[in-house]
Design goal:
The longest helix is centred in the first third of the chain and has 36 residues, at 11-46. The two termini are 28 Å apart. The chain is an all-alpha fold. The chain has helices at 11-46, 55-77, 92-123, 137-140, 142-165, 177-181. It has one domain (13-83, 90-171). The protein contains 6 helices and no strands.
Length: 187
């Protein structure tokens, strides 16, 4: 049995794949940078080697919010953040219908994040933080950005699921457990 080679991905799929790779690098970078202010807080609290820095708490909070937001974006892209298997094993169309139902809920939340997040960011546009004097829109920006990113990733997922429901596309094969050992499976 030979497998058909899939057609090369279109421009949109290449864009979302590149964007997802960028997000993966950004989350690694934000966690790495987050270690610096948190370490400074710990060392200044328990040793007399360095003075207590007040700005480190605020910087850690900013980075923590960005890290969580980027992680949520990646989770939607990989369909791992919001999916919980509660239903028994269904056929390919049933699985696609269940995924569409769940993704509609995520879509609603994405729209809430976009529209409310824009107002939230506008509210902080000309304000600064008290301690580090950082612009507050930097800490508010992840909400609308997260909503827009979810919409982009959900668009291609919903398209694929609707194609499966309509019978125009075959569902992807289930992951092979041996792929975990060969590190070919992205989890």
């Amino acid at each position: 049995m030979t497998r058909e080679t899939p057609p090369p991905p279109g421009l949109w799929r290449r864009f979302t794949a590149t964007y997802a790779a960028l997000l993966s690098h950004l989350v690694v970078g934000s966690v790495a940078i987050l270690i610096i202010p948190v370490s400074l807080q710990i060392f200044s609290r328990y040793t007399a080697l360095i003075p207590s820095y007040i700005w480190t708490e605020e910087m850690a909070r900013f980075l923590f919010i960005w890290t969580i937001s980027i992680g949520a974006m990646i989770g939607v892209r990989e369909s791992s953040h919001f999916e919980v298997d509660l239903l028994p094993q269904l056929g390919p169309r049933g699985e696609a219908i269940a995924r569409v139902t769940g993704r509609i809920g995520i879509l609603i939340m994405a729209l809430v994040f976009v529209f409310s997040g824009i107002k939230f960011t506008e509210f902080a546009w000309f304000r600064t933080s008290e301690l580090a004097d950082l612009p507050l829109w930097l800490i508010h920006l992840p909400w609308p950005l997260m909503g827009l990113t979810w919409l982009a990733f959900l668009g291609e997922q919903l398209f694929d699921d609707i194609q499966i429901i309509a019978g125009r596309k075959q569902p992807p094969p289930p992951p092979d457990p041996t792929d975990i050992e060969t590190k070919a499976l992205n989890i």
